[in-house]
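[retry 2/3] Pirin family protein: previous attempt timed out, resubmitting with same input.
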Amino acid sequence: MSNLDLRPAPGVCGGTGRTGPVRDVQPGKQVPLGESTVVRRLLPNLGRRMVGAWCFVDHYGPDDIVAEPGMQVPPHPHMGLQTVTWLHQGEVLHRDSLGSLQTVRPRELGLMTSGRAIAHSEESPHGHGPFLHGAQLWVALPDAHRDTAPAFAHHTDLPVIEGGGLSATVLLGQLDGATSPGATYSPLVGADLTLAAGTDTRLPVDPDFEYAALTISGESEVDGVRLGPGALLYLGCGRGELPLRADSDSSLLLLGGEPFEERIVMWWNFVGRSHADIEEARSAWMSGSRFGEVTGYDGDRLAAPALPPGALKPRGRER
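[retry 2/3] Pirin family protein: success.
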């Protein structure tokens, strides 16, 4: 998924070290995406720009798209990151400059590693279902792997942890002994948690990871904090287990990882380490080089917005 902001602010991230357990609820921001989709952007936000290597989180829906085209995101570039497509309802048709053509459906992992350069488009396919509901997430690649070869993977058989009214599907990384088949390049975890009505349980987590929880549907309590749909709760580090309870059926995403110590610049759809990295990537996209071509999308590709007047500088998350 693309950041379609025509005046994207430079994201300066990383280098914060570890914090103890906290309970910081952070609201999302409504952002239009493509022709007919509005998303809640939860990362980056005014209070926090990363959770582990997770650097971008959009939550969308549930949207009634019976009479709408649904998601329509034209071809656009990515560099220095992975994109994670995760659906609860609907379908997303992925095309990329490697020649991939794949429909991603609910509870299936669409994982694209941009590495040095890739381009892709995303759209609701013809004859799509009545609703669209899901999340799009980005993972920053560490410096040692940011020039890795681009790749796309589609995983339909993901590990599931069950017990005590909790069902946890592991998207990426490892949770409570279950490991996702998705490729990762830093210690992290992403899991979809479904809580049945009456659930009151504790989920084992890694105390060295920082965590955040995003409510997808219903209401639940995470470490004693009640969360409604579209809210992000930052939890910090230092927990060995995470208390979870729900009075009614609900679901949430749990994101975590070792605090990302590298300093990065995130601008538009690029993650780099310097202004020169971003400037070179933008120039390559605008000139039609490096990122390849997405074929089959009915429409023009996205043009990159203008760079800000000052140089983009990598800094830590401190303000």
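[retry 2/3] Pirin family protein: The chain has one domain: 12-257.
[retry 2/3] clearing retry counter.
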